[in-house]
């Protein structure tokens, strides 16, 4: 499933990125590598962006980014 | 020292990066992720002997300072805090261009020891670009507080670069950091970082591109890392062509003036 749909407070494992080019590079640089554990921490009031715990750091990611990240529960 | 003005990218230093290295003082670059205590390391090494300005033509702060070790003066240049050298934000391009074209005599990468994994991305990228790298494991006290134990010996075997644990806030480890920098600059230790190997497709493309680069820019700069440049071209990174034009040929081209790459990225997932 997409990272966007990862339920709040649950853990997922990144299985792949569909992002291309610069955006892909950026996501990889921030530590979103296949095999990485992510936790959906909290939503902003509008539901976008969402804060995720990734490799010991909380990152706020927009839907346009999380739509390009595949995770498994 | 065995360094001449020409070999240390002296002209480029002064013109493009606002760094004046009189009497061939070694130039040390300080790289690192944001929030790793890089500025604390910078202040700990230079004390009050520092001044700030901007990178030429950019609204990004540049700090540089001096430190003395074994009666030798070193110029320390604080690069912008970045997660990468490849995603092409202004800050990342400054850091990349400085390490690639200004050819610092040593690059220190400051990392957060309590969050090492995500920091190693930048370390590996710097290792790919230059051999003269020191890994500074800062915030060791934070790591201890979080019960994180780092097997420095094993990490050193993996990366094959000097690793110095520091607590910059308490001035711990900085002397050893200076000593190691001194040794690298004076060729008392030779660093040969672990080479990152890619798939056969990428490697064979690199093998084809490097000679072409050598023929075209080899005479201008024998120091720039052609393998690394080739990898950037395979990625289709036009900003690196822009940088080559700027630093080697003094042509300031806009990104639209850069021709689309001829590199066939067959099979490279990019």
From TrEMBL, chain A:
GO MF term (any one): transition metal ion binding
One protein family per Pfam: FeoA
Domain of life: Bacteria
Key words of the record: Iron
Keyword set includes Iron: yes
Keyword Iron among UniProt keywords: yes
InterPro entries the UniProt entry points to: Fe-transptr_FeoA-like, FeoA, FeoA_core_dom, Transcriptional_repressor_C
Domain spans labelled Ferrous iron transporter FeoA-like: 1-73
Gene3D superfamilies named among the record's database cross-references: 2.30.30.90
Designated name of the protein: Ferrous iron transport protein A
Organism: Iocasia fonsfrigidae
Automatic annotation (TrEMBL), chain B:
Cited InterPro entries: FeoB_Cyto, FeoB_GTPase, G_FEOB_dom, GTP-bd, P-loop_NTPase
FeoB-type G domain segment(s): 25-187
SUPFAM superfamilies: P-loop containing nucleoside triphosphate hydrolases
Gene Ontology MF: a single term: GTP binding
Signal peptide per UniProt: none
Record's GO cellular component terms: plasma membrane
Protein name from the UniProt record: Iron transporter FeoB
